[in-house]
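Q: Got a minute? One more chain.
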Amino acid sequence: MHENPKQNGDFATAEALEAAFDWWLEAGVDMDYSDDTANWLAEPKVEEAVAAPKPVKRIEEPKQTPVERAFEGTARSVSIGGDRTGWPQDLAKFREWWLSEPSLGHARVEDRLPPRGVAKSRLMIIVAEPYGDDAGELLSGGAGRFAAAILRAMNIAPHEAYLASALPAPTAYPDWNALAASGLSEVLAHHIKLAEPERVLAFGRGLAPLFGIDAARAREAGSLDIAGRKVPLLLAPDLAELSRSPQRRRNFWNRWLEWTA
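A: Always. Here it is, folded:
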């Protein structure tokens, strides 16, 4: 004998709920009543409101960009590098000029570091600026030791590499687009012209504007037209980034092999 589910109360949940509503409707109750008043226009409870993000405090825009502050008093009157007719025409004089030319920045001579190496090297390495632990000469600290290890892997002797920086001294948050437009790209091109390297390897893809390269193409190998001579160019991640990432080192090494094949 089978039990009648309608008699023993064995309803499915949806059927039970529907039956309950039908019972109240037949009784003439079609609204929900309560003895307690409710303010339907009240603001959300505090515990619900605190989850919303706090308003961002408005920060006044600086009157000067970092580049303008670094080159204050020079960028407005002359471009970086000053009068082109007075630029040095050999590396020895360029090193002296690099340390003393006011338009290159306001760092003291003690804070500037000159490039090192000889002309017509197999490889010219360019970094953005001296590193904080460089003492006495460019790339003499931890980044320099890492660069030396890279050169050994490349089978390039120390005397076959020319080491340079785009800026003579560390600068807070350099704007490479603004610096390129202000004349630093021409200074760098003149430096490469005097150095006459076979190839140029720049560590720091942010330097792309100095070479006239769009950021979207910074990973592609290219070349520079220096006084009518094509010089192969490769942009790589900054030395600090390479030292921290095995994957970046592998990618860089594969690109180097393809570039020099």
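A: The two ends are 90 Å apart (CA to CA).
Q: Perfect, thanks.
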